[in-house]
Amino acid sequence: MVKKHSGMNGQGSRFNRRAVRVEEAQRRVLEAAAGQVVGSELVALHESGGRRLAQTVTASSDWPPFARSGLDGYAVRAADIAEASPEKPAELRVVYEVAAGQVAPAALQAGTAARIMTGAAVPEGADAVVMLEQTAEAMLAYGSRAVLIKRAGAAGQHIAPCGEEFRRGGVLAVPGTLVRPGHVALLGTFGYAEVAVRKRPRIAVFATGSELLAVAAQLAPGRVRDSNSSMVAAMVHQSGAEPLLLGALPDELAAVEAALAEAWESSDIIVTTGGVSVGDYDVMAELIRAFKDGSGVRTKVQLSSLQSAAERPASRLLFDKVAMRPGSPTSAAVIDGKLLFALSGNPGACFVGFELFVRPAIHLLLGVREALPTVVRARLLTAVEKPSPHDRFVRARLVIGENGMLSADPLAFAKSSMMASIAEAEGLVIIPAGSKGAEVGEAVDVILIP
Amino acid sequence: MVKKHSGMNGQGSRFNRRAVRVEEAQRRVLEAAAGQVVGSELVALHESGGRRLAQTVTASSDWPPFARSGLDGYAVRAADIAEASPEKPAELRVVYEVAAGQVAPAALQAGTAARIMTGAAVPEGADAVVMLEQTAEAMLAYGSRAVLIKRAGAAGQHIAPCGEEFRRGGVLAVPGTLVRPGHVALLGTFGYAEVAVRKRPRIAVFATGSELLAVAAQLAPGRVRDSNSSMVAAMVHQSGAEPLLLGALPDELAAVEAALAEAWESSDIIVTTGGVSVGDYDVMAELIRAFKDGSGVRTKVQLSSLQSAAERPASRLLFDKVAMRPGSPTSAAVIDGKLLFALSGNPGACFVGFELFVRPAIHLLLGVREALPTVVRARLLTAVEKPSPHDRFVRARLVIGENGMLSADPLAFAKSSMMASIAEAEGLVIIPAGSKGAEVGEAVDVILIP
Which Pfam families does the protein's record reference (chains A, B) (predicted)? Predict the structure, then answer.
């Protein structure tokens, strides 16, 4: 057990946590994560969807690489059909055909046409394609074939010129881009059979709290199951990273230090839940305080395997209180160069802390350019009648109305522990510090949740 | 090579494709996929995120399972602090403490208090919790401890009563639900260490077209790389299914028949790209025609390994033309009970065909209740000045304005082959059949794209 601090002094140091504003806390996280982009790996193109690019993608050729027929029909010289009409169709001798994948045996001469298929290379000499449906076949003397063109056409019709869509060397996507199906199409077109993507950052996750049981365990008096570890694992997956679950630990400093050391060895970021409040057994808060006592100063907490971590400039507290609800005790530190997030054990606060701080940090490690959450404007469908001295993040459902207006419908905002609303939430409505809440119809900022 | 049909008769039968409206085509797909839900499998809770539930999730206990303290402080009897004030604090003898995970040794008597931590079980007899910050410690005679409560409190404060959030047996999520992090938290809370989720449907994918090269190949005159297979694979992954890539095939009936047979054996749905138009070598169109010649009638196409498939009632054409742009030749059939989608080889049309028909079919196999794409209203940011006799699906970026209004910005709508816009698209603007396009500011329906 953590040594209990009794008397007012002990409590005093425990309460001596200065809240920073959310933006400042985020700034500190992003600054600490800067330059920590993880390495890259090559994956097969068809497995690159959903990953983050680690390379610049450029066009390896002009595209289309040749003048392509846009449909099935006949390649012609536009001059030959300039006057064609249903009454007076142009009759052109069919000299060859070009299937997709083939090339014409010769340039197309005046007065002739070539049967051509969608996607085939337009023969030299031809400068228009006529849709099959606007033609009829005919026979000429001596059994040679002809085509009747019943409509006038112009040069260029139904032809995609070489290089129309892309020029060789043009940049198609930059590092950090999320690979969507359309990117996969581009990569395939330009011959990227393998793609350099960011490795999945490894995120160590553990929960602290002597009340915690494994999910598989039977309930016992006073005990609850550790649901946060699995929830955080799901959020880590969603962020494009790989969770390493280290389990639920009792509120014992030695156990938590050992887990931290293991996490530090095996991961890029460490996320813990619980133990960050002002309670007598809040072991994460206890550990975090160590970083506060100043660099170069020997701290009272011994990080056994990370000895003197707090003495190195690479170890420091980022914040141990954030001016927000829920989740004000959310804390973050750098331990010997690695980010540690100590999230609240309250599931709702844990969820908000992840969205505001952990997901952006993972994004930075993945080289994502806009790492912070996306914020949009919406109208409130239900009032939030709860004043708060701090920014409040209210889980909400999002609705796009008949008129195209985005609305946010707050879910059970009064109780941040209301777990059901986490599953339903599509956004976090931001109620700014100092307001008395927000009225129905008021315009609010909303953080989009994946 | 497919036997070439020369003369007007051959062309006539090829053009004899009756377009169905998109809604009708979707209806036929959903009807054909109904009842084909794939089997389930158990996965570890922390790996269940992003999967589709195959079970109903219920609360296995009341929640909280006991009256829980909402914060760190003192459990008291509200009657004892009803009159407390800074000037006249209530002084209560501290009889024990309850850490999270512990249970009180005895019921709380009048005039006493128990130190209690966040999440701990509130002792019997206590009916309020006082925040630590509103208390001070004191010493009584003979060294026993006391606490001074400086503020009046009411019964129930800072206590979450047993069963406040959930009642045992209450339904938390139904089959088909996408497991989000919040669901994982619920599942963990109620002891679901393993979760029954739908298996990933296996989607066989191949491309047809003699012009197609493998992605890894060097370009050659008249040839292009098969980018559709990998794009479709990425979309299949995105839909929660597993792609089986069978490669790019030349326009040869025997090769395609063999691939179809292999696909049929190994997959739940077959998706092909290319070869659906009216060209002379459009082998998928050729195959699809076989299903049109009526059930019970011997067709001219021999599906070698699927002999007489067309003779079985379980094999039938669903549609071979859809009244839409791009992608009008998009076709679908049921082959011996399995869905076959023959998408256009044009990447933009292939993309739209997947969103409109294949993703909903995969959703049905996953047991998703609302299988069709989500449609929202938005204002157009740029005019679509292109009349169309058919519904047109225009790729667009989506923007939520300062006023909360959703807008759609069409991307290069004129050329459905413009691949760059696939990667950027967040929605498909629907320009209804018969309209002359759409004006700036006009309200339009938009299909959301993942």
Answer: MoCF_biosynth, MoeA_C, MoeA_N
